[in-house]
């Protein structure tokens, strides 16, 4: 499938997801490190030095001692520089896997269900992605004419007084902050208004909001 400018969909996705790389980032940097009583001169690209720095910090040792420990486990025919690159990348991937597991929709739903306050997760299209049992109970009490509360909750559009893109922008700049605004749920002749506290949803899968209904 082709899109404008002659670029196929895969090419567009690659351009949007690939980070930019400066030319100096491609140049190996020489460093002399000392560990285990031995001094070694090593040339690695900066990103691998950064990875080794994080590994050593996590392990509570110096980069020199880390390199020494890795060298001690290396086969005689091995290449230390290549091994350092591979281990640095594998360590980063293992940390990424751990973070993505914690920031999954499954864990986000558990956070939602643990709240005694009615809570929802909103997509950028203002759809309700997730909701908790307290939200269902609130709907049953405040909108009694609903026949199937759970199915209705899945298809509801919850409108907020502040544009959702504006909320996402403000919270993306002000990490760790929340934003309070008004909300409205309308269903036929029934409606429900109140206040909702919004924060960026702790998930990597998409940019979403987690909202706790504070007044309703």
UniProtKB/TrEMBL annotation:
Molecular function (Gene Ontology), one example: transferase activity
Report whether Transferase shows up as a keyword of the record.
Answer: yes
| Basic and acidic residues: bias regions | 1-17
Annotated segments matching region Disordered: 1-20
Write down the Gene3D superfamilies for this protein, in alphabetical order: protein bp1543 (1.10.3990.20)
The answer to whether the entry has keyword Zinc-finger is no
Q: Where is the Ribbon-helix-helix domain?
A: 31-91
For this protein, the record's Pfam families field holds: RHH_4 (PF13467)
Keywords attached to this entry? Transferase
Q: What is this protein called?
A: Aryl-sulfate sulfotransferase
């Amino acid at each position: 499938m082709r899109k404008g400018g002659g670029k196929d969909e895969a090419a567009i996705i690659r351009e949007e997801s690939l980070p930019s790389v400066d030319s100096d980032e491609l140049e190996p940097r020489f460093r002399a490190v000392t560990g285990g009583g031995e001094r070694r001169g090593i040339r690695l690209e900066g990103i691998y030095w950064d990875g080794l720095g994080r590994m050593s910090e996590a392990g509570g040792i110096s980069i020199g001692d880390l390199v020494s420990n890795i060298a001690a486990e290396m086969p005689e025919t091995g290449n230390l520089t290549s091994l350092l690159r591979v281990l640095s990348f594998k360590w980063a991937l293992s940390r990424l896997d751990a973070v993505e597991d914690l920031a999954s929709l499954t864990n986000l739903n558990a956070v939602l269900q643990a709240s005694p306050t009615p809570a929802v997760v909103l997509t950028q299209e203002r759809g309700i992605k997730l909701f908790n049992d307290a939200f269902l109970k609130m709907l049953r009490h405040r909108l009694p004419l609903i026949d199937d509360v759970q199915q209705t909750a899945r298809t509801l559009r919850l409108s907020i007084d502040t544009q959702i893109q504006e909320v996402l922008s403000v919270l993306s700049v002000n990490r760790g902050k929340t934003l309070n605004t008004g909300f409205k749920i309308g269903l036929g002749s029934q409606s429900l208004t109140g206040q909702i506290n919004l924060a960026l949803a702790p998930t990597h899968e998409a940019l979403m909001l987690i909202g706790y209904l504070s007044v309703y």
